[in-house]
Specification:
By secondary structure, the protein is an all-alpha fold. About 75% of the residues lie in helices and about 0% in strands. It has 2 helices and no strands. Pfam families: Flagellin_C (PF00700).
């Protein structure tokens, strides 16, 4: 909406804007009042549309962002609350198992050589 188009076409008038209205006559003054009243109605309708947009779109977006922030904070809390002692114990246990497996494989490759040296 353009400010110069507010109130144009009221009561069938052909005014492009208020500067075209001759307010020195009673009819012209009445036309000017009609144009101003229509402009006020146009502005009121536009304000209503903007308010509805704000209510429906911007508030919904703000609520979604709040929920996202809350979920992110909760996820960070879960990460920070990890039981590091338990996780280090699990890691150490896995390391011991890997080292034991490596040692068993090493012994398994040496066993045939030992048998051959005893027979030989």
């Amino acid at each position: 909406m353009n400010p110069s188009s507010l109130g144009v076409g009221v009561n069938g008038n052909q005014f492009g804007n208020l500067s075209e209205v001759n307010v020195t006559t009673g009819a012209g003054a009445q036309d000017a009042l009609s144009v101003v009243d229509a402009a006020i109605d146009d502005i009121t309708n536009l304000r209503g549309d903007l308010g509805a947009f704000r209510q429906n779109t911007l508030n919904a977006t703000a609520n979604n962002l709040r929920a996202t922030l809350e979920n992110t904070v909760n996820a960070e809390s879960v990460i920070r609350d990890t039981d590091f002692a338990e996780e280090i114990a699990n890691f150490t246990q896995q390391q011991v198992l890997v080292q034991a497996g490596t040692a068993v494989l090493g012994n398994a490759t040496q066993l045939p050589q030992l048998v051959l040296s005893l027979l030989g």
